[in-house]
Amino acid sequence: MSGAVDGLKTGAKFESGLDVRFAKDSLDLSYGRGLFGPKPEYRSLDSIRQSLRDPDCTGPDIVYAIAMDVGRIQDLAELKKRMLLFGIVTYAEGKLGEEPVRSQGHVHAVSPHCGWSTPELFEIWEGSAIIYGQERSGDEPGRCIAVQAGPGEKVVIPPGWPHYVVNAHPNSKLIFGAWCDRQYGFDYAEVRTHHGLAWFPLVHKDGQIGWEPNPRYSSSKLAVRKAREYPELGVPSSTPIYECFHRAPESVQWVSDPGRFEDLWPRFEP
Q: Is 25 exposed, middle or buried (0-12, 13-18, 19+ CB in 10 A)?
């Protein structure tokens, strides 16, 4: 499979703009001519148990694979100059006990070059995702929002928000790309102290995703919504996010320089 991938729910095809090829029977990927990228790093079930509803659950041994710093060779100097990093992530099929396959959740560490816990711009390539975020990582999580997204749809997690990504269909893979800060780092301390984020996703018998609050947080409300467009950030809905950078690098500069929208972030919602 190349950069054009089939959306399993809708049958639609989405062209990412990158010649990345995904193995059918594993979470591996390879790069076409003109691209650079690393061998994926693999996240095991044992490495994320602390943040799951049932830390003793069974599930796929490799939960997801992540390749950080992917792109066109001709863009590398510009990517470094702008402190931008493009990542590709593939999630396994299956469940983690009663939960869908998901990441453990984290907050972006403060980036040394800009002094912000930077935002992230996601784009779904294959399958169906739920991107969950909450306003704060302490006992009071603040606003809690779960965004449902399919192939070609985009989701922005604002600065400082703890978040995780869910594979919303246990019988299929999930693949997505994301723009991150080049000096990215992950802070797991508060997430692990609370044994996860404020809401756990659960797979019901009919395959639908429900939600259960994490009792280690103060009471909160969860808003579940569809992916939206982001005109306030200048994100075009019809252009792949890597192609946005390739055509106009300034268009995604806010990912590594969120101070450009300092007045926007306090009221921003994914």
A: exposed
Task: Name residue 245's amino acid.
Answer: F
Reduced to 3 states (helix: H, G, I; strand: E, B; else coil), residue 132 is strand
Q: CA angle at residue 170 from 24 to 147, to 5 degrees?
A: 110
Best CA proximity match to 191, nearest among 129, 114, 104, 120? 104
Q: Between the CA of residue 257 and those of 30, 74, 181, 229, 253, what are the distances in Å? A: 30, 22, 8, 20, 6
CA neighbor of 48 nearest in space, from 254, 233, 191: 191
Contact indicator for 196, 202 with CB cutoff of 8 Å: no
β-bridge pairing 199-203 and 209-213:
antiparallel
What six digits make up the tokens of 230?
Answer: 């982001």
- Beta-carbon count within 10 A of 230 CB: 16
Our CA dihedral for 119, 124, 130, 133, rounded to 10 degrees, sits at 0
Give pLDDT tens digits for 52-103. Answer: 999 999 999 999 999 999 999 999 999 999 999 999 999 999 999 999 999 9
- Torsion angle in degrees (nearest 10) through CA of 259, 262, 268, 270: 0
**Cα–Cα distance between 99 and 101 in angstroms, integer?**
7
The pTM score is 0.94
Q: Which residue has the tokens 């090829």?
A: 21
* 3 state DSSP class of 28: coil
Q: What's the pLDDT tens digit per position in 155-170?
A: 999 999 999 999 999 9
CB 122 within 8 A of CB 154: yes
Query: Which domains does the chain possess?
Result: 4-257 (2.60.120.10)
